[in-house]
Write a structure and sequence with these properties.
alpha+beta; 4 strands; four-stranded antiparallel sheet; 77 residues
């Protein structure tokens, strides 16, 4: 398992389960357990390099946080 979790955010992370798994999972910790909030499939296949995979995880984290903020803003207004 490979995990992308910025130091400033203790509540959210992106994981890749490794192996042949074509999916990234955006998760939030709740009651001591990580729960999936969203997932995405690599449309062009699993990145072959670590840098490329890290970049994809970082981009997916940023996208997911933006979507989460948009939803929270829509609910507030």
């Amino acid at each position: 398992m490979l995990i992308y979790k910025p130091e400033f955010d203790n509540l959210h992370r992106v994981i890749w389960n490794g192996g042949d798994s074509p999916m990234l999972h955006f998760q939030k910790i709740k009651d001591g357990e990580w729960k999936d909030l969203d997932s995405m499939t690599f449309m062009s296949g699993i990145p072959t390099g670590t840098k490329e995979l890290y970049y994809e995880m970082c981009e997916y984290y940023n996208y997911s946080m933006t979507m989460l903020q948009d939803i929270m803003y829509a609910v507030a207004f």
